[in-house]
């Protein structure tokens, strides 16, 4: 129909003005592969593969060394004249920014939350004056800070070890799962956590240290409950700082094209506030909370305590991944700009080694700050030399400037942090747009954010990650599927519901299933098939067995006769209702092999027994597997079972558009046998349909031949009879039959 | 080429003997949808959907009530005459089996492990006689058992609540993720756990109660270390029981067709062992561990303690899911056999309510035992009446028979359990076959098994579940992809590597990507494209900008001239190397809009500057999206970026075979604009290729027209010149150009 329609009705031409003419054989997969000489891919054995990947040469060794120590690559090529000046300028600028403006990093917060959880203030109470007012407890600050530094450095070491392991195992790809919506929700939750922790300081109230689920909410509630105890000096200083910082930042943003560099308002506010606090002696006069003492100099190397490892494993996992993800995503921005590539696993190893080393020197987990990277780039930095110089500047600042900040109010510092959170919170505005574009992505955003607030950042990230992966599985599991029909005069098959001029080939159902078939969705796949064909193959089979059993009983009783052409009822059709229709009849008893009975039943005609056997209006089912990207063993087993179930009720199942690697999978899993043959696979749906239509035609011709022979045997001239009765089309068929008979 | 080849070379016919002839217009998605009157699906608003699903009618209400209380459905239809006798016979048999043979259920074990973890013996030590020997501690058994019953019943309540929640939220589908390999690995690990716990009892040695990671291994090691302290009477009784039970079970299995019912060896052994123990007084004479006291009667309802909930949440989650999964999988076997359907969520609700109720009566978590279900079915049970009767039998047995078993050795009971584990352990033999068929599935099996042993059953199941889902994500993430070429004289496009007679259309690359495009694999997708086309679009663009900048400099210096037809070097080609090729040049400075320069550069010719601009050998990229089953927002954004990057370097990107719902997704996410138009989408790859070939032809004609005009303007007769020079094909093109010019 589709194949010949093109001749009778010349197609209208679309804009492009060209037409599509194809004449080729109908291909089953097998015929196609044979005719076009499919080459099988050479499969290497495990041994060959090992030999290949472990082979060693001098060049290869050098490349490995350079991968591990990239400085060997770039330092010998350093162009002193061109680059050194740039690097110095850039290094100094970056160092100054790094000293003056401490941009808020997510990782600091995550480390902080671990430290606070594992070494809360309560653990270091020396004396408590019958503590009803929380302010009256005395805390051993020295012991507390020592414990906290130990925890932070142990965490750094563990993060380093994990990163090194990740890098060595080449699982840098893990970062791919940190999708944009997930990162958005997570950082917003992190901002909320920071906000709550800093709000406490601005109000200068203490709260209990809450742990675990919902701790941040409890802290927030208690902070507001205790808000009455606030120190007015701290609160006013904090609020002023927030207002000033946010206003100036707004101006910076609005006039960014007119002013050469943004006003470093944080630095200005900090210096002024420190000066005021020193001048008025806020601590003594107003009991304000000030920074008090900043340790100078450097701590000697300390062995981190490895027995803390088990407590902080989950957190350090999150931190390791997040720190790495931030660094790589910033790196990628510049890699694209400057046309180089980032080796994700090399980065992992670099961070790992650096953190392991830092862990022994009471250092903090290392990551990347986007703002400082931007400064280094815009001021013209060329190589890592700029990084070394900026580190030197920070070093000098730490040694020299610490003393000056000691009178500063803590609430001012906290307020500076809060003022910098605006951008993070503004991410919430993305959600409505996201919802319009993709509901799933919006849900990932909200879920990750809510979970990170409820469970804490580490478990929240993990929950978000798993949820994100689940949505992928769900999207695969609830795939779109539809029954297809053909667009007349073309080889195109489309969703029957979507088009007006669409027709379903007679006796054939076509089903397209747009997803992998695996353990998670085989049930759904079976349901799709059932609802496309309109009946349940197993149920049809059981009912037929039931009916057969009853027919057999009737034959034994002599009320029916089985002949070659079917069953003849001796008792007439009025006697049908011999037995009640038991729906719950035991199929065990029905287990009579149909071949022994040798009854030919036309299941679509009216049956002589009163069993409600569903009608099967089709003889073939074509599964369009063009969008099936993989199969697992459960999927293959289910497919096999489906084919068998349909074959039992005389419906053939054909597969179209299977990809080559899926055919291999089917072979491996023992899909094929004498009933499920490889010639059931067709190249396209249209190939399968043409094949089926041809089959029908062949059968018609065969029937005609038999009829003609019968007529001749009866002594009649078949042609006379035929010509009188047949329509033109029927005549064509008959005619061909005669010709075949003659040859 | 493919379109016209059919005419010149008649195709050979394959076995099926039919051929494939199609003549239709070349369709872009847009043209096709217009011509064939695509119907848009009616999208209901949230409100309408709510109204629809919340609408209420008497019939509907009745259906809901019957769903909640299925007894209203079946009891009024009960056929007393036919079914009652069957139900009584079946109920009595099932009750007897249930009493005599306690088949090993996974759920009991999981509950037991929670109970032992939360209320270990150590918590109930009254006096310990300077305990070096573990046997000398005295335990407050009454308190211990009371605590354990409380824990078990609280667990039952919590499991019930979870199941009710799952059922109400309609997440019965969660069970689909319990794939066959996962269940196999999990039950084998469970069998191992049971084995270790029972081995301890057979040897009559005590061990510490280990918790958490690897506890089962520690227990096993300590059991063997203490094996010297074993009680010989218990050990011998245990070993004998194991040997006898396994031997008789083997016989049962071998002669199952010859003996009417299997020998209930467990019952026989138990009775004999109890008799011997009572007769010889094993407890006094040999210090054997006996059952001692079985409480009779029933406990009054007790309020479970809800403050244990948080401790047992993870375990009860696993138990809720596993108990349900077992029940549903057994149910499905019979649903298929008797042709009814199981409503997964109704089952969840039923288990939930039953467990919540039981929780208040010191009961155990309910699930299904396959063996007893089989007994009920084979003995002819028809309805739930049989279940009530069998429950009555068990009730009588509990009240009457408990006393008789008090002298039984515990080691005999443990040995009976061990003897029943054989089948579970035999599952290990599945693994090699699984490995041959599907490596991923084999790895899921092993991973779940190992994790369940290391982490314990609850966390192990969770780990296996997540790992299984991860493999799905990984299979989606590392999809197969390949460059396509056309099979001459057909409309078929196949992997270029797999076929001998395959050709790639000139200037076009075709890429097929067989998986969804989402956040997890966009990087991989970009890499696929890069490696298919052979260059990096961004890099080409950056290099071109670099070259342009240099050319502009040269033009300023007067060493080059920009004309309409390109760039003319005044200084000759020898002067090319004015500047070094800086690879790390700052693209910021290159940010010169190309339109301002208005230089036409033929990038594939040799450039007058020494910048290494990669050649772009193609003008079009066709992405075959037939196997892309979904897109997320990250995927759409990446696709958009890819199209833009290629358009910048004058390569057009076309999409073929996109499914309808993906086109909608693209629209929702704002994929299209004035440069990315909907007519870039084609119905099939062949449509796109035909369109492109036609475009090339049109351009040739246009060029010819211009050339002809130029000739005419120069006063020459174009035809004379042309005919002398052109090949036949070129002449055809020229001829058509002339005709168009004339019209």
Descriptors:
alpha/beta, two-stranded antiparallel sheet, homodimer
Q: Could you characterize the architecture of this molecule?
A:
The structure is a homodimer of 743-residue chains. The radius of gyration of chain A is 39 Å and the shape is elongated. In chain A, a hairpin with a 2-residue loop joins strand 7 and strand 8. Chain A has 30 helices and eleven strands. In chain A, the strands form three sheets. A six-stranded mixed beta sheet of chain A has the order 5-4-6-9-10-11. By secondary structure, chain A is an alpha/beta fold. Chain A starts with a helix and ends with a helix. Strand 1 of chain A pairs antiparallel with strand 1 of chain B.
- What structural class results from the helix and strand content of chain A? alpha/beta
* Rg of chain A, alpha carbons: 39 Å
The proportion of strand residues of chain A reads 5-15%
Q: Helical amount among residues of chain A, as a percent range? A: 55-70%
Q: How many beta-strand runs of chain A?
A: 11
What does the secondary structure layout of this molecule look like, with pairings?
The structure is a homodimer of 743-residue chains.
Chain A (H helix, E strand, L loop, with lengths): L1 H7 L10 E7 L3 H7 L10 H9 L3 H11 L2 H4 L5 H21 L5 H13 L6 E4 L8 E3 L1 H28 L11 H24 L11 H11 L6 H23 L10 H16 L1 H5 L26 H26 L5 H16 L10 H9 L5 H18 L8 H10 L2 H5 L3 H8 L1 H17 L1 H21 L3 E6 L6 E3 L12 E6 L8 H12 L3 H21 L2 E4 L2 E4 L24 H4 L22 E5 L8 H16 L3 E5 L3 H9 L12 E2 L2 H29 L4 H8 L2 H15 L1
Parallel strand pairs in A: 6-9, 9-10, 10-11
Antiparallel strand pairs in A: 2-3, 4-5, 4-6, 7-8
Helix pairs in contact in A: 6-16, 6-17, 7-8, 7-14, 8-14, 8-15, 9-10, 9-18, 9-21, 9-22, 11-12, 11-18, 14-22, 20-21, 21-22, 28-30
């Amino acid at each position: 129909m589709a194949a010949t329609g093109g001749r009778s009705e010349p197609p209208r031409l679309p804009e492009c003005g060209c037409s599509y003419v194809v004449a080729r054989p109908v291909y089953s997969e097998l015929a196609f592969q044979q005719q076009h000489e499919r080459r099988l891919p050479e499969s290497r054995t495990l041994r060959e593969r090992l030999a290949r990947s472990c082979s060693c040469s001098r060049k290869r060794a050098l490349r490995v060394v350079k991968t591990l120590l990239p400085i060997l690559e770039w330092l010998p090529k350093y162009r002193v004249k061109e680059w050194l000046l740039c690097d110095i300028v850039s290094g100094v600028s970056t160092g100054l920014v790094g000293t003056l403006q401490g941009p808020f990093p997510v990782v600091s917060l995550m480390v902080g939350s671990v430290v606070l959880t594992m070494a809360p203030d309560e653990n270091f109470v020396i004396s408590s004056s019958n503590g009803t007012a929380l302010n009256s407890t005395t805390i051993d600050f020295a012991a507390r800070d020592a414990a906290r530094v130990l925890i932070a450095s142990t965490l750094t070491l563990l993060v380093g070890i994990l990163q090194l392991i990740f890098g060595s195992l080449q699982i840098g790809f893990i970062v791919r799962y940190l999708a944009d919506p997930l990162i958005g929700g997570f950082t917003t939750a992190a901002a909320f956590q920071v906000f709550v922790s800093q709000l406490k300081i601005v109000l200068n109230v203490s709260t209990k240290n809450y742990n675990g689920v919902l701790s941040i909410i409890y802290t927030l509630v208690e902070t507001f409950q205790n808000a009455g105890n606030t120190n007015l000096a701290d609160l006013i200083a904090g609020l002023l700082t927030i207002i000033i910082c946010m206003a100036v930042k707004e101006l910076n943003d609005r006039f960014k094209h007119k002013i050469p560099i943004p006003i470093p308002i944080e630095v200005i506010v900090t210096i002024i506030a420190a000066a005021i606090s020193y001048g008025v002696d806020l601590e003594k006069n107003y009991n304000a909370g000030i920074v008090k003492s900043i340790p100078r100099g450097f701590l000697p190397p300390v062995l981190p305590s490895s027995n803390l490892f088990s407590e902080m494993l989950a957190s350090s996992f999150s931190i390791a991944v997040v720190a790495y993800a931030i660094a790589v995503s910033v790196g990628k921005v510049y890699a694209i700009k400057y046309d180089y590539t980032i080796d994700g696993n090399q980065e992992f190893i670099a961070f790992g080694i650096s953190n392991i080393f830092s862990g022994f020197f009471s250092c903090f987990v290392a990551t990347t700050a986007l703002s400082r990277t931007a400064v280094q780039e815009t001021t013209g930095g060329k190589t890592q030399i700029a990084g070394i110089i900026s580190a030197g500047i920070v070093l000098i600042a730490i040694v020299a400037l610490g003393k000056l900040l000691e009178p500063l109010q803590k609430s001012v510092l906290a307020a500076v942090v809060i003022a910098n959170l605006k951008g993070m919170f503004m991410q919430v505005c993305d959600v409505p747009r996201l919802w319009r574009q993709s509901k799933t992505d919006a849900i990932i955003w909200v879920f990750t954010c809510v979970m990170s607030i409820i469970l804490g950042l580490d478990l929240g990230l993990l929950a978000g990650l798993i949820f994100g992966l689940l949505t992928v599985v769900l999207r695969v599991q609830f795939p779109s599927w539809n029954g297809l029909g053909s667009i007349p005069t073309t080889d195109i098959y489309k969703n029957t519901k979507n088009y007006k001029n669409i027709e379903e080939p007679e006796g054939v159902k076509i089903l397209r299933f747009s997803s992998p078939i695996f353990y998670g969705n085989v049930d759904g796949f079976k349901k799709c098939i059932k609802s496309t064909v309109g009946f349940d193959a197993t149920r049809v089979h059981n009912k037929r067995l039931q009916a057969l059993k009853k027919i057999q009983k009737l034959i034994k009783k002599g009320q029916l006769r089985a002949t070659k052409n079917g069953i003849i009822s001796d008792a007439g059709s009025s006697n049908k209702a011999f037995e009640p229709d038991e729906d719950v009849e035991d199929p065990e008893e029905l287990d009579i092999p149909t071949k022994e009975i040798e009854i030919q039943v036309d299941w679509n005609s009216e049956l002589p027994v009163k069993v409600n056997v569903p009608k099967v209006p089709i003889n073939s089912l074509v599964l369009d597997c063009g969008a099936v990207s993989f199969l697992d063993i459960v999927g293959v087993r289910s497919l096999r079972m489906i084919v068998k179930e349909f074959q039992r009720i005389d419906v053939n199942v054909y597969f179209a558009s299977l990809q080559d690697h899926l055919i291999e999978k089917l072979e491996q899993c023992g899909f094929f046998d004498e009933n499920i043959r490889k010639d059931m696979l067709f190249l396209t749906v249209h190939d399968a349909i043409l094949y089926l239509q041809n089959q029908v035609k062949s059968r018609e011709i065969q029937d005609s031949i038999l009829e003609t022979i019968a007529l001749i045997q009866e002594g009649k001239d078949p042609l006379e009879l035929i010509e009188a009765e047949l329509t033109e089309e029927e005549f064509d068929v008959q005619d061909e039959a005669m010709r075949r008979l003659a040859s």
